[in-house]
Design goal:
- The protein is mostly helical and 260 residues long.
- The chain contains twelve helices and no strands.
- The protein has helices at 2-5, 23-54, 66-93, 95-100, 121-139, 143-160, 173-181, 191-196, 200-203, 219-227, 242-250, 254-257.
Length: 260
């Protein structure tokens, strides 16, 4: 709705402000999304018959404690991150997988929420679904923990593809850059990107300076200042000075400034 109506009040929070959503592209994304949800439903239908053999108490009427739920969710995070990062980067480094499978997802240079499921069935089965269920499946978690994890993960993925950076929300700029550039930021948490250096272009871009959770409405202003290499005060981190921002902007290349 927001991308169709483009209300003036929200446009400043759009990461790629010049993007205009085409109705036919949205309908295509909707069809692909529904198709992939049906695939997930069929696979989970069969998984539900197998899962009790792996975790006999998974459907027990006795609910897990809050402590067990929190511990499980914390363990799920690195398991999902490891699978998704290496699976995702493999689909980029393999020319065949990228050209014939993953490029389909990258047709959205400026992603929107529904494009989170805009993938070929092969990628959905090999990357999206396994990275979502690997934690609960390996841990043999109670079904209610599955629900909490899956709902939270799907919301996170949709938000990462939303194309907007609203106050208090996780910054979608990180994955938005992955779509606009076609490289960098392969993981969700960014840990492996930092370790393996698969975010060098991102870190040399002005866009990473504003990829943070805002508790105010300063994002549109900071975006203009950062894009033009102007200093701004990071109110989320008082230790960050305008000199630091200037230094980082001066190190950027001219080519990076043309990535918008």
């Amino acid at each position: 709705y927001i991308d169709f109506m483009r209300p003036a009040l929200l446009i400043p929070f759009k990461i790629q402000e010049d993007f205009v959503l085409d109705k036919q592209w949205w309908l295509k994304a909707a069809r692909v999304s529904i198709q992939n949800q049906l695939i997930a439903f069929v696979l989970l239908f069969f998984l539900w018959d197998i899962y009790p053999f792996i975790s006999p108490d998974a459907f027990d009427t006795k609910l897990p404690t809050l402590g067990d739920t929190v511990v499980s969710l914390v363990i799920f995070v690195p398991m999902s991150e490891i699978y998704f990062y290496f699976g995702h980067i493999a689909f980029h480094k393999s020319q065949w997988l990228y050209d014939n499978v993953h490029f389909f997802h990258h047709e959205w240079k400026a992603p929107i929420g529904i494009s989170a499921l805009y993938v070929k069935p092969l990628e959905h089965i090999l990357i999206n679904l396994p990275s979502l269920i690997i934690g609960p499946f390996v841990m043999g978690s109670h079904i209610t923990i599955w629900y909490v994890w899956i709902v939270g993960s799907i919301m996170k993925r949709v938000l990462a593809h939303s194309g907007y950076h609203f106050p208090f929300f996780f910054p979608a700029d990180i994955h938005d850059y992955h779509h606009s550039s076609g490289w960098d930021n392969f993981g969700v948490m960014g840990v492996f990107d930092d370790f393996f250096g698969t975010n060098i272009n991102w870190l040399n871009s002005w866009k990473h300076l504003i990829a943070k959770r805002y508790s105010n409405q300063d994002y549109p202003i900071d975006k203009i200042l950062a894009k033009n290499g102007q200093p701004f005060v990071d109110k989320m981190d008082t230790s960050t000075s305008t000199d630091t921002i200037n230094g980082e902007n001066q190190s950027q290349s001219g080519d990076d400034m043309d990535l918008e």
